[in-house]
Amino acid sequence: MYQQMIFVNLPVSDVAASRKFFTELGYSINPQFSTDDCACVVISDTIIAMLLGKERYADFTKKEIADATKTSEVLLCLSAESREKVDELVDAAIAAGGSGSGEAQDQGFMYGRAFDDLDGHTWEVMWMDPTAVQG
User: Fold this and answer.
1) Cα 44 from Cα 78, distance rounded (Å)
2) How many Cβ atoms sit within 10 Å of the Cβ of residue 125?
3) For residues 79 and 98, is the Cβ–Cβ distance under 8 A?
4) Vertex 127, ends 122 and 130: CA angle to 5°?
5) How far is it, in rounded angstroms, from Cα 128 to Cα 81?
6) What's the rounded Cα separation, in Å, for the pair 20 and 41?
7) For residue 135, what pLDDT is reported?
8) Can you tell me the mean pLDDT for 47-74?
9) Average pLDDT over the chain, rounded to whole?
């Protein structure tokens, strides 16, 4: 059965630094689709982050590239298998040079935190109790 994928393309200032940042979070880099101006970060079997140097990113759009440290165009949200995994990933991101973004959101059945990567892109990480969505 076909499984749809998502390829999130993000402009970055320093591809090598971004590659290091995401590998420190436990993600792998697919060398087949990575170059000096692009890192293909494998988040899961169906989620890929393409971290493109700004010049390379500009090849795909005629629009001005947003400075994610000053404006927000997208909030990326990743699921986690537990509350502890939410904390582990966000804490790892902060330790790797990212920064915390906002306060933890704890609604009992759902828990989330967020971090900004090296270029200011906001990544939310959330856990939801599976019994809460089973109806």
Assistant:
1) 10
2) 21
3) no
4) 150
5) 8
6) 10
7) 59
8) 95
9) 96
Closest C-alpha to 4, from 58, 55, 60, 45: 45
For residue 46, give every residue at least 6 positions away whose Cβ sits within 8 Å of its Cβ, in sequence order, or none.
3, 4, 5, 6
| Other Cβ atoms closer than 10 A to 54 | 15
Classify strands 75-79 and 122-128 as parallel, antiparallel or unpaired: parallel
**Residue 130 banded pLDDT, cuts 50, 70, 90:** confident
- In three-state secondary structure terms, 119 is coil
3 state DSSP class of 108: coil
Rounded distance, CA 116 to CA 122, Å?
4
Rg (CA), the chain: 15
Q: Which residues contact 85 (CB under 8 A, 6 or more apart)?
A: 125, 127
Cβ burial 12-35 (10 Å sphere, 16+ → b, else e): beebebbbebbeebebebeeeebe
